């Protein structure tokens, strides 16, 4: 979240008149984030979040709106979009696509405890059960096909050993996945790091920022979560968080035999996905705005730990 397109109180007050959300009281730009302009808006009735979309594929925004509304209708803790009096949620403001959301309670957990891990695992399992029936389609833009097509763009910027590591990993992933049929599919969050959740104490206030949302392997989503939520500073897996998240998740959606077999590979593949995407931002395609990119080294460390130590055993489903 950040502000790249400033808005005046008058602009926002006029925008809110389309909606049944009360009268404008105040506007606050939200610092941080990478892609969109975000504001907290207060009316005489409620707290809201206003997002302007600065870049990306705007024609894909209806997919995100439909996914959020679908999950909200199924009582998942996500910010379903606010529709205007005509039933429309996607608008234009300051010549940018704009969406209005309820402001969810809580803050990002820096060091999640086991209670927070349990509710996150349970909620993601619930989300994946529900998302298998979501009718929308947006192919995963960061899957194995992307890794194969894009990884060569960063090879000139990394060491010979890392070049070999990256190329060998992509080859290994292709070999592993080619031996199995299609994994369970559904709609994914696609970027469910700790800073895309909000907690009040041990209560999950919401899951936010679905703009990497897509459809694809549910296991991909789960691996992203484990690599962020259950990883120590040295890249190794934290056994307690790992066990807690995966047990809670599987109470909702047990993994299939194919998923269990491919689990160590998926952990490595999603680690490489973030190592590569961060390298691309640093060396090949810097952000449009003056922002500090995420450090690629974090996911190189995680990848090397997954190669060295593999995955911890998956909890058995009772």
From TrEMBL:
Belongs to the pseudomonas-type ThrB family. The keyword Cell wall biogenesis/degradation does not apply. The keyword Lyase does not apply. Residues 27-255 form the Aminoglycoside phosphotransferase domain. GO terms for molecular function: ATP binding; homoserine kinase activity. PANTHER family: AMINOGLYCOSIDE PHOSPHOTRANSFERASE DOMAIN-CONTAINING PROTEIN (PTHR21064:SF6), AMINOGLYCOSIDE PHOSPHOTRANSFERASE DOMAIN-CONTAINING PROTEIN-RELATED (PTHR21064). The lineage of its organism: Bacteria, Pseudomonadati, Pseudomonadota, Gammaproteobacteria, Oceanospirillales. This is Homoserine kinase. Its EC number is 2.7.1.39. Pathway: Amino-acid biosynthesis; L-threonine biosynthesis; L-threonine from L-aspartate: step 4/5. GO terms for biological process: threonine biosynthetic process.
């Amino acid at each position: 979240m950040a502000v790249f397109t400033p808005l005046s109180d008058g602009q926002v007050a006029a925008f809110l008149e389309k909606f049944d959300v009360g009268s404008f009281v105040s506007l606050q730009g939200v610092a941080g984030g990478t892609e969109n302009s975000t504001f907290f808006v207060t009316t005489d009735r409620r707290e809201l979040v206003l997002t302007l979309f600065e870049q990306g594929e705007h024609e894909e925004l209806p997919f995100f709106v439909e996914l959020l509304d679908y999950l909200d209708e199924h009582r998942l803790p996500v910010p379903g979009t606010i529709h205007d009096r005509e039933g429309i949620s996607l608008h234009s403001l300051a010549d940018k696509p704009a969406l209005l959301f309820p402001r969810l309670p809580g803050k990002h957990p820096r060091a999640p405890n086991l209670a927070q891990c349990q509710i996150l695992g349970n909620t993601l399992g619930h989300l994946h059960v529900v998302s298998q029936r979501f009718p929308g389609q947006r192919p995963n833009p960061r899957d194995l096909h992307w890794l194969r097509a894009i990884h060569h763009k960063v090879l000139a910027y990394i060491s010979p050993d890392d070049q070999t590591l990256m190329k060998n990993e992509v080859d290994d992933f292709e070999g592993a996945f080619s031996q199995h049929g299609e994994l369970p599919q559904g709609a994914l969050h696609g970027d469910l790091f700790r800073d895309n959740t909000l907690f009040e104490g041990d209560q999950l206030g919401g899951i936010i920022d679905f703009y990497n949302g897509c459809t694809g392997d549910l296991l991909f989503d789960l691996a992203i979560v484990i690599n962020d939520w259950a990883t120590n500073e040295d890249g190794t897996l934290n056994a307690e968080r790992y066990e807690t998240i995966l047990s809670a998740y599987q109470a909702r959606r047990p993994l299939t035999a194919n998923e269990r077999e491919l689990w160590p590979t998926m952990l490595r593949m999603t680690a490489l996905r973030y190592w590569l995407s961060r390298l691309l931002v640093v060396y090949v395609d810097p952000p449009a705005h003056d922002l500090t990119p995420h450090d690629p080294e974090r996911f190189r460390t995680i990848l090397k730990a997954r190669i060295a130590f593999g995955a911890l055993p998956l909890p058995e489903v009772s």
